[in-house]
Amino acid sequence: MQLPQEHPFLVFKHCPRCGQPGFTSNSIKSMQCSECGLLWYYNPAPAVIALIPRQGNQLLFTRRKFEPAKGKLDLPGGFADIFETIEDTLVREVKEETGLRLLNWEFLKTLPNKYIYKDLLYYTLDSVFICQADLSGEASPADDVSEIVWRNPLQVSIREVGLGSIAKIVNEIQSTPSLFEKIFSK
């Protein structure tokens, strides 16, 4: 089995239970210790993506402040914390990154993704939501966001987008008129 170059199993060499070397992969999703027998599964990390439209077919994009993809367009979102629901993650991440309060949201879809951070690959499962936010105040960049960018997604070049799942969503919006209509009909 050939693992991707960034796969964590190529980095993790010692068992987290007994500390012995010989912690090796059984498959792309599990490792086992040859000493104590620990079988450890590497599951995707849950994450959220918020599609926040406003009048004029404008979608709220953010500009990434840090690597990976520093300076590229992104959508509000991020990783779930331990013991947090995916809905709580959505509300928290939008508030942290934009200062906006979500009024309601509708689940759209999930996307498997790969996220490389400091040379380590994380597999994620991104839950995408169409959101209505309280836009009575201005969105302001915070946390890992350097700028708020309102754009018509039909006018965004995929080269401007930094992360794989975000590029997939933008491409799908651009190529699926019914999805564009669904986002902007709220």
Helix content: 10-25%
CATH architecture title of the largest domain: Alpha-Beta Complex
> Which fold name corresponds to the CATH topology of the largest domain?
Nucleoside Triphosphate Pyrophosphohydrolase
CATH class division of the largest domain: Alpha Beta
Number of helices: 3
Main sheet makeup: 4 strands, mixed
At the fourth CATH level, what is the homologous superfamily of the largest domain? Answer: Nucleoside Triphosphate Pyrophosphohydrolase
Which of globular, elongated, flat, extended, rod-shaped describes the shape? Answer: elongated
Count of beta strands: 11
Strand order of the largest sheet: 8-4-10-9
What is the count of structural domains? 2
How much of the sequence lies in strands comes to: 35-45%
- Structural class by sheet pairing and helices: alpha+beta
